[in-house]
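Example (one chain per record):
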Amino acid sequence: MNPNYRYDVHLPPNMEQGKSYPTIFTLHGKGSNERNMFGLVAPLADTFIIIGVRGNLPLGAGYQYYELKSLGNPIREMFDQAVQDLEAFIAYATEKYPIDAGRRYLLGFSQGAILSVALALTMGERLKGIAAMNGYIPGFVTTEYALRSMKGVSVFVSHGEYDSVFPVRIGHETAAYLRDRTEHVTFKLYPSDHGVSEENQLDFLAWVKHDAEAESI
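Predicted structure:
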């Protein structure tokens, strides 16, 4: 099977034969790339497999996973295809690398956060957790997609209080919707614009390490 996306993979340097590892798939924002996301998760590289997935559509000097009709309004057909292709990519990577299928996480920023939430809703407990930074949930996902149980899925939602792209109320709405689907929601606000602060990064790292360790006990 050929993957639908170019990607970077970082394997733990001292991997043990026959052992499977918790894995983070990173999904970048519009106009960015997979390498820009690695800095957020680099401190985990000794114990996690890290796979940065590059959007397959060029945009300026970077990439995107789908195009927009207008801000906050994805082209439906392209969004649907991205969700389908990313789910297939996760399956491809799980077969190719020593990934612990019970500890698969998504980390997404902006467009990547939007897709991470959509994938959590459609894949359900086939994912262990997601971190969605400065994103939202498209209305058609909640009303027209076939949604799976997220009861056992851990969720980290973060948003900038001064986000000039997606107002902070969207972060509150996203967290509230997900709290109706799983008890395992952490929601954090940061005094930032549309970006990821150092405090946001440190909170995410602590969250994912704790969650993955708890699952392995």
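Caption: The chain has a mean pLDDT of 96.
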